[in-house]
Amino acid sequence: MDFKIIIFLFCLLGCKQANHKNDPIAPIEQFKPLSSGTLNIELTADTNYSIFVEARALRIIPKQGSETQTLALNKEGTYYLTLPIARSASATLEVNNTSYNIMISPGDTTLVKIIPEVNTNRLGFAGKHAAINDYYLAKKQKLGYTNILIPLNHQLTSSTTYLSLSAKVDAVTQKEFQFLDSVRSLLSLPDWFYDYEIAEIKYAGIGFKTNMPALNKISHVLKDSLSGNFFDFVDKSMMDDKSAIRSTKYYMFLDSYFSRNLPFDHFNSLSGFDRIQAIINHILSTSRDVISSDIQAIYYKYLFSSAIRYLNDSTKIDSLAVTYGIDDYKDLISLKSTRTEQTFKVLYLEKGDLIPEFQATDESDSLKSIRDFSNKIIYLNFWTTWCGPCIQNMKNLNALISSSNNKDIYFINVCLDSEKDKWRIALKKHDIQGTNLYSTETGSNQLKAIFNINGIPHYTLIGKNNILFENKTDKAPYVSEKINRLIASPL
């Protein structure tokens, strides 16, 4: 173990008063849908600059991301952020664009100190999750990142194959396992957290590999063909893993695995409740015989909590609950009809098709039309303020924009499904370059139909005169080659 890390950990342990190793948390009872946890943030001194603080987390029930408001701190004192969360789980705390992992629990308070220092802000922790949060901080210092997707994405190059990717992902996860085991006793990490962290690391890697074939259909990073036995690394113990019952990454893996053979052409031809029901039937048919009742109780409620947001008809909701085998969903009924069903017919645009007219507002609240940009090539980036992968790739997109000296291309970022105030904050916080447009809920639904957007981020490359070159194209920087090709030989 690195000597500097040992010193760092002993400094962290200096103020510990309790051993939380045997802190019991019942795995299933811990799920409390629509609950919240609180971040108690203490700024230890006044500053002559603003410290922007916000938090976000992925929830299992309901199935969606959640985020707090943004605080701007410069006066010594105590501040609070409330974060929707259904069970003890890792959240991301951002302090002036620096990300940290922290543990947060429903109905509980996580204590964080921000200690301003020259050119930086140091964090300290107290309370029952202090040892866990010290572990996250030590892990960030040792490994250099907070999100395992960062090194996993770095494995993707033009020479990567499915086989080499699998080996590289295994190496990244093994490195994380080794660090966890090296500090487990030193930090007196609770047993329940050790199981949780093992699952988060394990299924981040497995899920990344499982989801890669679907992602590659969009990104086209891997050039080799998918072999028929690619998914052989998944066994029944992975699909039915009770030790992972509170891990967000585990349920995301289940999603990608059980939907890997979805006949998308058929489902994309459906809309509204029919589409929801067809996808559900497919997932249920592939999962019911391989996951136990304990996992089903959470996983199916996780799926139900996503679908109910598009429904208002109580008969359809009751029918959906019966399909999932859910007896009690009173705690989720407030979610119904919180998202609008797709009311626009999905278009299956092909290369050479004219992009239909659509409009969105710019940062000055002026209405912009796609026709306003018809004299140049367009690279469209569809994103949301709560989408982690969207935000993570903004640096690459900004770099691509900065390095592009060609005046024949517009880089346009269209924000979907987000609150306008959070959109404006995100633009400043992440210094998002290019032309920034905001779409209302109705406008977002129209854009999802036009460009057949099933997930975000979503990228589209358009030639001059609004002629489609490639929908679901590559992200930055991988799209550079296609942009250069289109500039050299415009449609």
Keyword list:
five-stranded antiparallel beta sheet; alpha+beta; 491 residues; five-stranded mixed beta sheet; Immunoglobulin-like; 20% strand
Summarize this, please?
With 491 residues, this protein is α+β, with helices and mostly antiparallel strands. The protein has helices at 3-13, 130-143, 149-154, 162-183, 191-219, 236-239, 248-258, 264-268, 272-287, 293-307, 314-324, 388-392, 394-403, 420-429, 441-450, 480-488; strands at 36-43, 51-59, 64-67, 71-73, 77-84, 89-95, 98-104, 109-117, 120-126, 359-361, 367-369, 377-383, 409-415, 435-438, 458-463, 467-471. It is built from 16 helices and 16 strands.
Structure write-up:
The strands form four sheets. Strands 2, 3, 4, 6 and 7 form a five-stranded antiparallel beta sheet that branches. The termini are far apart. Among the domains are: 3-149, Carboxypeptidase-like, regulatory domain (Immunoglobulin-like); 359-488, 3-Layer(aba) Sandwich (Glutaredoxin). The chain is globular. Mean pLDDT is 86; it is low at 1-29. By secondary structure, the protein is an alpha+beta fold. Helix 1 (3-13) runs antiparallel to helix 2 (130-143), helix 5 (191-219) runs parallel beside helix 7 and helix 9 (272-287) packs parallel to helix 11 (314-324). Strand 2 and strand 3 (64-67) form a beta hairpin. It has helices spanning 3-13, 130-143, 149-154, 162-183, 191-219, 236-239, 248-258, 264-268, 272-287, 293-307, 314-324, 388-392, 394-403, 420-429, 441-450, 480-488; strands at residues 36-43, 51-59, 64-67, 71-73, 77-84, 89-95, 98-104, 109-117, 120-126, 359-361, 367-369, 377-383, 409-415, 435-438, 458-463, 467-471.
